[in-house]
Amino acid sequence: MKQQFSLSNKLLIPIILVAITFLIGLNSFIILNPGQAGVISILGQARDGVLLEGIHFKPPLVSVVDVYDLTVQKFEVAAQSSSKDLQNLSARFAINFRLDPLSIVKIRREQGTLSNLVFKIIAPQTQESFKIATAVRNVEEAITKRTRLKQDFDAALSQRLKKYGIIIVDTSVLNLDFSSDFAKAIEEKQIAQQSAKRAIYVAQEAAQQAQADINRAKGKAEAQKLLAETLKAEGGELVLEKQAIQAWKEGGSQMPEVLIMGGKENGAAPFLFNLGDFLD
User: Fold this and answer.
1) What does the domain layout of the chain look like in residue ranges?
2) pTM metric for this prediction
């Protein structure tokens, strides 16, 4: 019995040693996947040198590796500001960013976790960058020139976050709102512009109508002048007679087929007209 207990003790000790050695071995290595970076801390102190993808050795039991995501990440944040003409503006941005691998150790020492980085650095810097972009333009320019506003915002935000090891990949303006007073002013301005355009159109139409009346009057005067000159020329009486016949026809009266003009009264020979020649 004593021999069996002694044999069991002899087997148990090596098993425990092997298990401890195995656990220490597992704790001595870390594997980082693509898109990850790590910072090793020994006894609570962050060591220089970032760990990139692959397998890495670390002191067992006394070291911890903090892993950071290097892929592009998205964070939405709201911001408020005032324009150059003191109108209130509010916006919501989608910030696409990634961490600079060379700044991971600095981020670990100064900010700690990614959550701290987002809420303590990115959110307030987004607010300040929005103020910078809106302070140089009035609210109407901020709306009509939204692309330029975004460019100024991107430039300001990228510059302010670069020192923290944050690289801005892209930003999106999800929403841009202004005060209700400005919305009412915009509506009144549009109504005024439409009224002004209508007044211009009416004035132009009246001017065109007046010009048409002038042109008609000029044409009528030219026609009368030409008629007067014709009457003075030889055969003017014949023209008048033809016009009388035409007026008679347009009045609806039945026209005679033959008209006799002239005679003994004026000392001339009678003249026979075939009215069919005038009516053709």
Assistant:
1) 2-69, 73-178, 181-233, 234-280
2) 0.57
Q: What DSSP character marks residue 71?
A: S
Q: How far is CA 12 from CA 3, 6, 15, 20, in A?
A: 14, 10, 5, 12
3-state secondary structure of 254: coil
Q: Would you write out the chain's pLDDT as a tens digit for each of its 280 residues?
A: 555 545 566 667 777 766 666 666 667 788 899 999 999 988 888 888 899 988 888 888 788 888 999 999 999 999 888 888 788 888 899 999 999 999 999 999 888 888 899 999 999 999 999 999 988 888 878 878 888 989 999 999 999 999 999 999 999 988 888 766 665 666 556 656 666 666 676 677 767 777 777 777 777 777 666 756 665 555 555 555 666 666 666 665 555 555 555 555 555 545 445 555 555 5
The single-letter code of the amino acid at 18 is V
Q: What angle separates helix 180-232 from helix 236-250, to the nearest 10 degrees?
A: 130
**CATH architecture, domain 73-178:** 2-Layer Sandwich (3.30)
